[in-house]
Amino acid sequence: MSTVRTPRAAPLPTTTGFDVLRWRRDFPVLQQSVHGKPLVYLDNAATAQKPQSVIDAVARYYRETNANVHRGVHALSECATAQYEAARDKVRSFIHAASVREIVFTRGTTESLNLVAQSYGRSLLRAGDEIIVSHMEHHSNIVPWQLLAGQLRLDIKVIPITDEGTLVPGAYAHLLSSRTRLVALAHVSNALGTVNPVREMIALAHRHHAIVVLDGAQAVPHLPVDVRELDCDFYAFSAHKMFGPTGIGVLYAKQALLEEMPPWQGGGDMIRTVRFSGSTWNELPHKFEAGTPHIAGAIGLGAAVDYLQNVGMDRIAGHDQELLAYGTEQLLRVKGLKLVGTAPAKVGVLSFVMDGIHPHDIGTIVDQEGVAIRTGHHCAMPVMERFGIPATARASLAFYNTRDDIDALVAALGKVREVFR
Amino acid sequence: MDLRELYQDVIVDHNRSPRNFRKLTGATRTQEGFNPLCGDKLMLYLKLDGDRISDVSFEGSGCAISVASASLMSQNVKGKTVAEAEQLFNRMRALLTGDGQEIDLESLGNLAALSGVSEYPSRVKCASLCWHALKAALQPPSQVRPTEVSTE
Prior knowledge:
The structure holds 2 protein chains of 2 kinds. Chain A is an alpha/beta fold. Chain A contains 14 helices and 17 strands. Chain A has a 7-stranded mixed β-sheet, with helices on both faces. Chain B is an alpha+beta fold. In chain B, helix 2 (about 10-15) packs across helix 3 and helix 4 packs antiparallel against helix 5 (about 125-135). Chains A and B meet through helix 12 of A and helix 1 and helix 2 of B.
């Protein structure tokens, strides 16, 4: 008997008043034509487009401020430091963390997860300990644990998934034991769109004294996230999937854990003192930020947070659910199309296959119609293996997408049929 | 760019009904190919009688471009000597990557149907996979061959 409930579909929030066309105008990339057709960008789970305010924030930093942080006494350096640290506070507020000491800037979700594996995992886990992951993880939430397991001789247990793309009810509770030390889970699956019941799963892990690392890369662009309400121990995400720059991301961690953890990378900025007899570490979160950081990226991320707060994450989530429902309905009308990932609780990710037509061909043909989607294994080969397919085509939504975008995709899929007639 | 230059009738036909799509009993060389980007997989079988490719076949799964390319290749290398097949590999590589060499399309026969691929950079690897597998399979067994060729 599982204590993890299968997620139920949330009632569709009303999106009356969500003026998608107004927000869409803020994104210069979306105003262009591709192959002579208006661009329909449906590859947001790979990376999202950037609003003008983010582009301006990055450009303004290089134009007016550029200086190194935490070092100079000159005006530009003080200004850069203030902007960099202000961005950290915006991120803190965005995910409702208690303190900026719990917000570590990284290169992205992948680096955040590797940091947890190599700092927390390598110093605090022991041979024979177990890590639980799910079958729907992105490679970046599998491989760091495999590397760690090889280093320390740990065991990795995998929560199976159903044909709908949800975690098999009861399986997680069954896998948890006194040997479980860490659970690494996608908040939202990138390949399937499934929203996992992470709050209940975290509570269950904590009852077994295991800590929980959430891969939030696909959750932050779609849902309001409150790390304290979730009570997760670590939460990793990337700026570029939430309308910010590439090359910058976040690791949220509970302060007590960060204090317990040794530094991961050594270098400038992460130290307090360096002597050949031994060095001491800087305070949190700087202990985990060796070297000159991606200052412009952090400032751009801060601008993305401002932008999202202005649009409103609740309204974004509402629009996402409405468009997902419309997209699901329209795609299911396409002859020979099968959705992969039909969980009751999903975000706007529509993975699909078509009878006798390889996803790669679908991608090329719809691209000629101006429609950008992703095709392939989506860095989730175990998911493809589970469904017995080499790849899927994936349309992934953002709040600037419209019903017209879905209609354009469906029309382009008609062209696919024509080519393979 | 007209999609029909990529998905020519010959390509669509060979994708729907790939020629020599089977396991080859009595194969003297086998070579696996894999495209990690899109998951295309291929197993190529060759039967060499002396210096001549007396039979060829393949199995696997992939997109239309990769399946059609392998099917067309199997038709075109059958009966060729190793040297002739290697020469064909070089010409096809030039055709698929569009490296600027003058290629006499007429002399390529139905392989000319792959001439549109070079305009689609993301699809070059799909069409090339089987040719790289062929090139590896033609290496003398005394040389160390990769267990699997990859387009990455």
